[in-house]
Amino acid sequence: MSEKSGAFGKVKDFMTEVKTHWNTPKEGNYVPYKEYKDIFIAVGSNYAGSKMLEYISFGVGCFLIMHHYELPYLTYAIISLINMPLNYIGSLISWYVSDNLGFLPKKSERKVYATYFAFAIAGLTLLFWDPVTCMDINSSFVRFFNTLNGMSATAFFKIVGTHLLYTGWTGARNIFWRKKLIPKFGRYKYSLYCDFVPKSVMVILIGWLPLYNIPDMATRVWAANLLFACYNVFGFANNLETCTKSISPNTRERILVRTYPIKLSHLFHSIIAIIIPVIIGALKDEWADINVFRFVIPGMFITFATLTMFFAGRVQERIPQPPIEKKVQISFWDGMFGVLRNKYLWINTLVGLLDSLGNGMLAFTTVLYLYTFRLSGLPYSLIVALVSFAGTPPDFFTPYFIKRFSYKQIMIFYQLSRALGYTAIALALNFFGDNLVLCGTICVVVLIFMEATSTVPKSAAHDMNVRITDYQMYLSGERLENYSGVYSNAGIFSWFTGPITSFVGLIIPLILLTAGFNGNWDVLFIDSARFSIIIVPLIIEIVGYFLMTIPFMFWDYDSSKQEQVMQVLQRRAEVTEGLAKKEEQAVTVNAGKGD
Amino acid sequence: MKKTKKEKKTANPEQKVILNIPDEEVWDYKIEGLAAPMIGKTYKNYNLKKVLLAVAVVLVISLSFLFSVLTLTKDTFEYEALSDGTYKLTQFSNTGNIKELDIDFVSEVEKETVLEDGSVEVTFSKDETKPVTSIREYAFNCDEKIEVINIGAKVKEIDAKSFYSCWALQRIEVDEDNPYFCDVDGVLYTKDMKTLICYPINYDWYLAQENGFEKELWPGDEGYDEYKKANMTIVIPSTVEHIGDLALNYNALSDIYLPEGLKTIGNLAFFESTLTENIYSYKGESGQIIGADKISFADEDIYLSLPEGLESIGTDAFNYNRALSYMYVPSSVKFIGHHAFWDTVYKEDGDLKGVAYIDVAADESTFTGNVELGTDWLPHYDNGLFPKKIDVNYGATRKVIEK
After folding, report:
1. Which residue of A407, A432, A474 is the best one to mutate when testing the B interface, meaning the one whose CB has the most B CBs within 10 A?
2. Which of A39, A490, A538, A561 has a 20 to 30 Å separation from B1 between CA atoms?
3. Is the distance from CB of A194 to CB of A181 less than 8 angstroms?
4. Domain A339-464+496-577 falls in which CATH fold?
5. Tens of pLDDT along B241-287?
6. CA distance A403 to chain B (A)
7. What is the pLDDT of residue B134?
8. CB A375 within 8 A of CB A369
């Protein structure tokens, strides 16, 4: 009885607290409860919308590519190699622009714009003119590209042209929209406002443009690359959730927001993830039905994107930082050296490098569900939902685990649990592969275990990244997210790791090619091929997970250090704001004197 | 005082440190255990560091790029030397212009020449001291250009998956002196004609050209019936006892006649034969016949569906044969692989299409007792929330061919 009244009392207290702090936050906190509600709807829609876009990608795992374009597997690695050198130039300029939030000195801005326009013009030239017509068909250059899987010398130039056009177009847009929208919407949300409409149009075009009917493979490859590049010009990432990472300077409050409204908001997507396969299961050709990309995905995406835009304005960004006009200007080299001094970014980089061992691996669960167990419709939805739901209950205990264990312990546990899980799956496939029911049950149980043990580390990893950028701000006066690539994996560290991972990323596709996996996914219906295609990359992945524990042993950035960093940042914000006010007053006084 | 276990678990070991930072030190203040901020300051050896960083980046990029290009660089033909001094063709990478090739000796592309009409002529050089005797699985995987493959006299081993997904392949011709394999008008068999190894995916287009058609036709196209009669019917020779794994996958046949002596149908043998409407069996002797007009069986010698005497149906053997409407499993069958008839049924406008039921000769207890059945050998169809298996009619008699 007393327990009951105790629980009832707690609920009552909580309700009173919510009521009291509905519009104004609790002392020491920054986020009122009303914003929790807005975060729930806004992030939920944004997350569900961005998840819809995961069905569309220029990669082997996309059902549109898998069933309609049927491009050779190795081609993606080849394209990324072709684009790699150009990426360096593109990213150099883009970091400089982005980490200065688009606010460049006039002269620099003109130079950057000129470079981007030159890129775009060069790109268009290569798309409309074929340099191979002037080359010898027996030259080693032409021969090299013609013998590459899914490639030709002509396709090579078209791909280069596409990349130049993409870099120029996105770069110029980046400066233009950042300058226009960041002062109004903040650094995380602004892109939603300029990308919402064009992205919706591209999502529709992707399904309706029948480029997959082009008979010549190399032409199909570059045409698809061009289409997807245009599609990728406009983003619709989970920006509002990223924004909530900076929702409060209070780190405990950040975790609370992440744990409750955000995690609960993912329910939107969980429901959709059940409904979509049921709808698709009712189509004549299921996942291979083009109507998936003509109606189902665009319909869902546009609905959630519209909801996102409606609520986006209600989620606030609260990083302690100087006013934009007083922000620290970062020179290019200072940005570079600034991030290289961040020890924790090095740890992240090493982990990423080891993680790349698994690059090129097929989505293991897709193969398991669709080719081993031949699931579709509701059974498919239920298994996927069951596995993904396994991660939800543990997430409510995230604050406890984060308090109880250090980030180092959590991340080492995460890597070891992956290695263990994949080992169990590999053993099940090897020893019970003929018994689909037993093997399937073991695999699903292991997947549930892996999902359940991944949510706390994922939350920890998110917070670790936020802490890394807080620490970067302490070191350099700016977060340098683009130089560091902490969220995008495309910073200075990727200059070193990018080429290496591109090379390592060839290993698995080449192994899979010898095992029979090319552009035709039907090969996965061949039992022997399916086994080799799953098991070999799985073993490489297991080794990678064991190795990934090593860098985390050097993680020593604890909560005490984080608290101190936040104190420094808050002091800087106070001092800068004070100076700004003084300057403002001085200007007013001078203006008064002038009158 | 000693801490309790609970206290130990929940206590935050880190003491909160309050920093007292004067205004003038906010940009330089160094936290203990962390690096010092570098804001608006010049780095030591700034220029040297710039150079070193640039050199390191260039080095990493160059080396990785070099290794990547080396990894990707392939010869058109790749071989593996075998212990008996002969060679195995392991991988063929088309230059984009090779439509016909010989597999007899170790070869390489010598020259490609653009002809006046814009087509490209490819010349090969062969090393006749290095005979090719074997073709690896997936050697031609997903090639879209090759139309004719000529197998040399010494080739003795061809994997069932060697020509997997060769979308343009029209014919496989075998040297008459080859003691292991032969071809009948471009269809590959073992020399004793007991096993059908490969019916090329684009064989119908070869036939269509031979029969004077100018383009491939599809159901619904004008003249399709005539096209179908001429190019889309095959009688598999009566000598054939085994249809190999993947032998007729992706074929464009509408009517297939199987001999009564057939014993096994391999894994994925008729995989995704989306145009196959009828499978017949026939009694008596026959060679390979192509074209409905050339067939002259007596009515009593042909019957619907799988032949009497058939013992084994491989995994996914008829997967996605959606034009098929009838399946009869004779009493001789001892093994049906998993998903053998998967996706042969579907729902359209509320109606069941394809193989809506399966007739089985044996009664239920004999069938389930004697036949080794793979998982989901029966197809499922979308039935509201959960898929449903099609019905099986045990102890059924064969459906009679409608005239």
Report:
1. A474
2. A561
3. yes
4. Growth Hormone; Chain: A; (1.20.1250)
5. 999 999 999 999 999 999 999 999 999 999 999 999 999 999 999 99
6. 7
7. 97
8. yes
